[in-house]
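Make up an example, fold above all:
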Amino acid sequence: MKNIVKYGSHQIEFQLKYSNRKTLGITVKPDLTVNVSAPRTASLQTVKEKILKKASWIIKHQNYFKSFHPLTPQRRYVNGESHLYLGRHYRLKIKKSLRSEVKIISGFMNVGLNNHFDKNAVQKTIETWYEERAEIIFNKILLDLHPVLERNHIPLKPLSIRLMKSRWGSCTASKRIIINTSLIKAPKKCIEYVIIHEMCHLKHPNHGKSFYSLQSKLMPDWEYWKNKLENIMS
C-alpha cells in the first residue's frame, strides 16, 4: 500500500521504514523518492503530520533534483525530426552513404549510412556521434575551467562520461565525477554549470551554504543556466 500525503495540488508519496531510532528523519533522493525513517513507536498519522510540516522543503528538493533529470522525449529517428545539439534544434536528414557519419550543416543533422532505412542503425550512428562530441567538448570545457578551479583549490579530476537515466551529473563518494553523455544536447554554458556543480562537491559533499557560496563564486549566473537546462531539455 502506498503512503501518500496531500499538500495543495501536490501528492507526496513516501517510503516508510521503522527502526530503533529516537527521532524521525526524512530524505529526498535524486530519483525524487522520499524516504522516511521513524521510531517504532511513531504512528502513521504522526509520520504524515511531520511530512505535511516539511512538505514545502520536500517539494523544493524534488524540484531541484528534477533539473538534473533528462526529459528529452522519445525519438523516432525519421527524416524531418528535430534533434538537439549544444542547445540548438536540427532537422534530421538521412541519406545513403558508404560510411556512417553525422554532419551539422545549415540547420540540418545529416546522417549518412549504408542501411539508411534501418531506424536502429540511424539511432546508433547518432548516439555514437553524440558520445564522440561529448568526450571532446566536455573535456575542453573542463580544461577551460582549470584556472578558476585551481584558484579555489579544487582538484582537476578527470570526467567519466556515460549515459545516465536520472541525473545530468554526479560526484560519487569516492570523488569520481560522472557527466551524462546526453548533456551534449544542452548549451555549452549549461554543460559548464553541471561540471562546476559536480566539481564543487569535491570540496562540499552536501548542498549546504558553503557549497552554494562556492558555486556562486565560480559561476555567478548559475541559476540562469540551471533554469535554461530545465527548459530546453523538456
Observations:
- The CA atoms of residues 1 and 108 lie 50 Å apart.
- Residues 82-232 form a domain with the Zincin-like fold (CATH 3.30.2010.10).
- The helical segments are 44-53, 55-66, 119-151, 188-200, 209-218, 222-232.
